[in-house]
């Protein structure tokens, strides 16, 4: 068994779940999936801090504020961006992803990207608890692993 295959332990770790209110019904499904996985792996509910922002473009700044003021072990950023009649959705998703990566690198706090960029509602349904799983749950596992690695390496 590879070291990464072991079930990650979230006990004693603090997580922020920073979520977009735009397309909130689907985003709540992602948040619920992330929270379930974190709890199933030992995170105490009091160590999960939800933070809601208007949309995906606001996620990076809110994640930076959370990283600097709350000092979580990891942040999970959650959102849903669906293509409309133009390519604007791609710009929103790209800028959000770039900003989240920058926050992670600038602060040293792992910021995990669970922002779905989808062409249509069917793709979101598949990835927000449907046949393709729940992206929030999937990213929460990565958040646990990165938070543990951060602690093992003594990063702060």
Give descriptors for this structure.
Rossmann fold, alpha/beta, two-stranded antiparallel sheet, 156 residues, 47% helix, 5 helices, four-stranded parallel sheet, 22% strand
What does this structure look like?
The protein is an alpha/beta fold and 156 residues long. It has a single domain (12-151), classed as Rossmann fold, CATH 3.40.50.960. It has helices spanning 24-40, 59-69, 88-107, 121-127, 135-152, and strands spanning 15-20, 48-53, 74-82, 111-118, 128-130, 133-134. It has a 4-stranded parallel beta sheet, sandwiched between helices. The protein has a two-stranded antiparallel sheet with strand order 5-6. β3, α3 (88-107) and β4 (111-118) form a beta-alpha-beta unit. α1 (24-40) packs across α5 and α2 (59-69) runs parallel beside α3 (88-107). The longest helix is centred in the middle third of the chain and has 20 residues, at 88-107. It is globular. The model has no long low-confidence stretch (mean pLDDT 94).
């Amino acid at each position: 068994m590879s070291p990464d295959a072991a079930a990650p332990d979230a006990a004693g770790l603090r997580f922020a779940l920073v979520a977009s209110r735009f397309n909130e019904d689907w985003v709540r499904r992602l948040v619920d999936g992330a929270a379930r996985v974190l709890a199933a792996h030992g995170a105490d509910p009091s160590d999960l801090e939800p933070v809601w922002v208007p949309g995906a473009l606001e996620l990076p700044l809110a994640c930076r504020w959370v990283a600097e003021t709350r000092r979580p072990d990891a942040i999970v950023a959650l959102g849903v961006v669906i293509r409309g009649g133009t390519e604007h959705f791609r710009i929103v998703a790209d800028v959000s992803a770039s900003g989240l990566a920058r926050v992670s690198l600038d602060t040293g706090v792992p910021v995990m990207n669970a922002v779905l960029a989808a062409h249509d509602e069917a793709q979101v349904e598949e990835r927000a608890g449907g046949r393709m799983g729940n992206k929030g749950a999937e990213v929460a596992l990565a958040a646990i692993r990165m938070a543990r690695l951060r602690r093992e390496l003594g990063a702060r």
